[in-house]
């Protein structure tokens, strides 16, 4: 994975992915004690950065391979990104989801034209076995959520935009805080910044108790989370950083940061109040770190991603309560 | 007021106002039965289009006049737009607000550097008398919220962007639905479209029971609302269309549309769900018309503004309830 792949992905995404703006608010600057610039990927198609990677991967396939269709395991943002990108290419997408996934997510993925295949988490057949069967019988290509070079290249296009937009905003030196699950967005942005804005340094941000990447960066080897459920930041929970993404993060990223669920919710509420954006809790962890980890940051400006906005209305309402009396 | 003034305002606003994107969602297209393109001015500085007009008016003042400061009557979006624009020019802003205005709005306006002068709605001194006193004693210039040519020119810059962005999106013929209070945004956009995208036609959208502009367009003279309070769309309630804005709307706009408070709330919820945007109810009336007045619209695409996003968290939570079971 390298800058040429990211530039090539950007060419393929032109006219398809949105160039999201770089936003700010004097009120956020005041909380953070420095200038805060926000890259809202919640405004990307399907409500998260995942569309970039999905489109980049599908558009990179050989036409005859692509025509047979693609396959993804996901109950969340990756599913929707792959579904829309597949529809735009006029090819089938099969998404394997647990049968207890939220009804709205299943409905959204179907509405984007994908075929949803449900599996029983407690059943005998694993999702991987089901996927292998579908690949074999229908010739589908698996689009992995992060450990896939073209997906990382697609997410890296977000980093190209940050490099340009930071320069336009007069920011040459800053930490770039990235909401981090498997590290696709973080490593993609890190590669783009290395080549196009070397004064900007990517740093992963994770929820407390799911800080596999932060710990991996400290220990120098891939560490895993003790558990894979619980907490509000489900959109960015993964077992561990990826085999492809971790070495990139190890080479290029600054130390990881963690925030609590309450801090993520409060940052979500601040994005509502000051930026008029809908963030999901997992998508707000980088903003939370920008606002509430001032001592761990360097420089007079900080850039942070909002990685997605696909939040349950009840969870969002819970965040709004954080504003009462505040 | 003409296109040259709007272009000149756009020059002055360059590097200050945000160029807001033009967003869309296949889910909204499906509800509307046509392509829906959304211009989210909730992403503008201070959370509404009002910053454009405030900045345009202040930047057009003669330097010696401007240096003495500006004055506005407002408890809402205009106050914040004028306050920020004044601070960016390094000049004083005095905002006259009723003493029972929401504490958050008073605090926000002060935080943007304005001096807030409170008056008693039930008291002997009208706000106009108070304003005259301040103008005389301190040489302040009044920035009217809509009946002011430079304010209309500033709002018109939103129309220039719509003209360009609609062309890029391949839309040459469409209704452009505009959330309408006094008509500053509607008339500004109408003037810009007349010159730069004559296939696009501006149409005002108002809350039911506050449809002064729609009725004025029918009768051919300025009609007034029976009352000035009640309803959720407070951000766009005005007594009547303006003396300057009405003739422009009469010459250029298509028929007005109205929506109910429930439709505005539901559109606000759809903007949350499908666009990841925070709209205020008054700022969502044009989207509501795009979604729920299909029979009153022409063409296979519709463009609508979201005029602002400064909504009380409790009202927003009320809108989110519209999504339950839906």
If strands are numbered along the chain, what order do they take across the biggest sheet of chain A? 1-9-6-7-8
Largest sheet of chain A: 5 strands, parallel
Tell me the number of strands of chain A: 9
Percent in helix of chain A: 40-55%
Task: State the end-to-end CA separation of chain A.
Answer: 45 Å
Radius of gyration of chain A: 19 Å
Overall form of chain A = globular
| Biggest interface | A-B, 33 and 33 residues
Order of helices and strands of chain A: HHEHHEHEHEHEHEHEHHEHHEH
Structural class of chain A: alpha/beta
Q: At the third CATH level, what is the topology name of the largest domain in chain A?
A: Rossmann fold
Work out the helix count of chain A: 14
GO biological process, one term (chains A, B): D-serine biosynthetic process
Pfam families (chains A, B): PALP
Keywords (chains A, B): Lyase, Pyridoxal phosphate
InterPro entries (chains A, B): TrpB-like_PALP (IPR001926), TrpB-like_PALP_sf (IPR036052)
How do the strands and helices of this protein lay out in sequence?
The structure is a homodimer of 326-residue chains.
Chain A: H1 3-13, H2 26-32, E1 35-40, H3 50-60, H4 63-68, E2 70-73, H5 77-89, E3 93-98, H6 103-111, E4 115-119, H7 127-138, E5 141-142, H8 149-168, E6 174-179, H9 184-196, E7 200-207, H10 212-219, H11 245-252, E8 257-259, H12 261-275, H13 285-292, E9 301-306, H14 313-320
């Amino acid at each position: 994975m390298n800058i040429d792949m990211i530039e090539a992905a950007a060419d393929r995404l032109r006219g398809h992915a949105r160039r999201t703006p770089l936003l700010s608010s004097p009120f956020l600057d005041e909380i953070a004690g420095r200038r805060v610039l926000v890259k809202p990927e919640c405004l990307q198609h399907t409500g998260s950065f995942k569309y970039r990677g999905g489109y980049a991967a599908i558009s990179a396939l050989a036409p005859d391979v692509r025509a047979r269709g693609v396959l993804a395991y996901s109950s969340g943002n990756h599913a929707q990104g792959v579904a829309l990108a597949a529809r735009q290419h006029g090819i089938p997408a099969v998404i394997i989801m647990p049968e207890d996934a939220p009804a709205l997510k299943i409905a959204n993925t179907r509405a984007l034209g994908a075929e949803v295949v449900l599996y029983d988490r407690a059943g005998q057949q694993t999702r991987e076995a089901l996927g292998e069967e579908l690949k074999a019988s229908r010739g589908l290509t698996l689009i992995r959520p992060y450990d896939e070079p073209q997906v990382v290249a697609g997410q890296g296009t977000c980093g190209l935009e940050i490099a340009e937009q930071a320069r336009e905003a007069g920011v040459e030196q800053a930490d770039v805080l990235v909401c981090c699950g498997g590290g696709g967005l973080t490593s993609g942005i890190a590669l783009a910044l290395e080549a196009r804005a070397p004064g900007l340094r990517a740093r992963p941000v994770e929820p407390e108790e799911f800080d596999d990447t932060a710990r991996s960066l400290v220990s120098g080897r891939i560490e895993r989370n003790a558990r894979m459920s619980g907490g509000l930041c489900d959109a960015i929970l993964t077992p561990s950083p990826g085999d492809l993404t971790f070495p990139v993060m190890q080479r290029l990223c600054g130390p990881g940061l963690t925030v609590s669920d309450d801090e993520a919710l409060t940052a979500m509420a601040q994005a509502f109040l000051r930026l008029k954006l809908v963030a999901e809790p997992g998508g707000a962890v980088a903003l939370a770190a920008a606002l509430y980890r001032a001592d761990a940051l360097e420089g007079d400006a900080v850039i942070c991603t909002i990685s997605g906005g696909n939040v349950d209305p009840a969870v969002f309402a819970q965040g709004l309560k954080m504003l009462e009396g505040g």
